[in-house]
Amino acid sequence: MLKNKNTFLLLLACLLSAVSFAQTTGVVNTTEPTNYMQILMISVAVLLVIVVWVLANVLTMVSKQAVELSKSAPKVLMIFIVAMGSMFTNSLFAQTTTVKDTTTKVSADFYGGLSYNTFWTMTSVILLELLVVFLLVLFIRNIFRSIHPKEKLVIDGKVATDSWLVRTWHKLDKKFFTKAVPLDQEADLLLDHDYDGIKELDNALPPWWKYGFYITIVVAVFYLLKFEVWHTGMNPTEEYNAEMSAAKVQTDAYLASAKENVDENSVIQLDAAGAAVGKELFAKTCVPCHLAEGQGLVGPNLTDDYWIHGGGIKDIFKTIKYGYPDKGMQSWQTTYSPVQMQQLATYIKTLRGTNPPNPKAPQGDLYKEVAATLDSATIKK
Q1: Residue 92 pLDDT greater than 60, yes or no
Q2: What pLDDT digit, counting tens, does each position of 150-162 carry?
Q3: Taking the CB of residue 255, how many other CB atoms lie within 10 A of it?
Q4: Top-level class of domain 269-378
């Protein structure tokens, strides 16, 4: 009867592997472009199927030894059967609930181009396989320990056992971190030095510190060769200049392609079309201080040849952009775009010599300039 049970359990493990493989390969769609996320998940699922198959065979071999042992220890056989039965019950239950959850989702694009249902179906298969692998490893370990029990150390009447994690940490600590000597062996490492009752141990340097020191020596030699012998590295000044040059290239490329690339250095006077737009802006903003024809009220007269801050197109643009708050001229760069300020400056330039009625007395210095024009159709708006 026991042989039949073991055969049945082995068939269950193989069935789970086959079901997982069938679910994994069923979601492949050869009519779609290559999907690397799908390929990765299928590869992981197939690899886990192989792992499950190997562990199932290992469990079979270990079970045979447990069967031989159970002839003299019936209790071990009962524990083994109950444990294996619970493992497959939990696995099948997890598979059932997972499939139920994934079928209720609405199909939609998800990670890596996979649909919602496909992604979570494959994820559920992988998680199920990981669960099976974990349970197989767990029961193989428990059965192996029941067959080959380790000796227990009794200290002060208590059984002292170290977990795998503790034992691994002690091994790593002894080999790579501290090389610490047990307390009962410290007497062998004591030196003759004694300072006010403080004694010195001849412990080895921690390996992590020692290896780190060796690495710094290698880096220092390489650094010396690179900067002092081969001269292939840049000093801080050269790095700064190279980075500034690269930044200038990037800035120039950006400014060349940026919209409304106009400032006080690049602004030029537009043609009549640009001035017409500027006239509309002037009527909305500048009339209260300069009046409708630019003859001046609170602000200066814009029709004569005298200017307080310069009468060139660049000077006017700068005045509009930054303003002179101490003289009542506010900044308009938060209100108008660079192109609009260029159009407004162009219109102001056209006011020269218009001789409006009741002009305000000249202010500032005499200014003369030959204006340059540009077709407004070439300006990005």
Answers
A1: no
A2: 655 555 555 555 6
A3: 11
A4: mainly alpha
